[in-house]
Design brief:
alpha/beta, 122 residues, four-stranded parallel sheet
């Protein structure tokens, strides 16, 4: 069964196919009201640790190391991951992030990780 997981910036307007909208940043995004964010959930516990976020600093040169370290953090913290898996199994899931870089951010890594877990369980 195919599970739909979207990755979008929290600054983009909601779309009808979003399903559950989950903010996966540890910090609330600047300039976005809770109403405008239109969240189902703010899951801070699934975000990269403060140390990892600061080390990465959205530097594409550190992308590979960031992915490895973040996946290790996700494996060590299964509860919020399981919550997202349950949501993805029930309806479309949209992971929201605030970073400007649309290719190098935690939501991209998290979506790939969730897809691997869902595919493995199928």
């Amino acid at each position: 069964m195919a599970h739909t997981i979207h990755v979008r910036r929290v600054y983009d307007p909601p779309t009808p196919d979003d399903g559950s909208r989950v903010l996966v940043d540890r910090l609330w995004p600047r300039g976005v009201s809770r109403q405008r964010a239109d969240l189902t959930l703010w899951l801070k516990d699934v975000a990269p640790s403060t140390d990892l976020r600061q080390w990465f600093g959205h530097d594409p040169a550190r992308w590979e190391g960031f992915q490895e370290r973040y996946v290790a953090e996700l494996r060590a913290n299964p509860q919020p991951v399981q919550q997202l898996l349950d949501m993805a199994r029930a309806s479309p899931l949209t992971l929201l992030y605030a970073a400007r870089d649309t290719q190098h951010n935690e939501a991209v890594v998290l979506a790939a990780y969730l897809h691997r877990l869902l595919d493995h369980a199928a």
